[in-house]
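Hello, quick one for you while I still have it in my head. A protein chain has come my way and I'm curious about its shape. Can you walk me through what the tokens say about the fold? No rush at all, and the record is pasted right below.
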Amino acid sequence: MNTPVNPRNPRDRLDLMVSSDGFNWSLGVTLNPENDGRVANYPQVIEADDGRLHIVFTYAPQMSGPTWRERTIRHVVVTRDAVR
């Protein structure tokens, strides 16, 4: 979930939300640092056989129309214990 810190840029923080029932959600972990001047886009999550969550998303400066050279791909691995 993109949780805006800066109202002008709604993708400046990416949070992993958790739920035990699919209706009530709470913050599990923030995936990118706040106020670092970058935005997170296109998050994808898979759960491995060992229960770890592998999260991949693009990460780019907050300027409009960054070139492909300014974009990076982040891969974050999170254990279930880290998000409870």
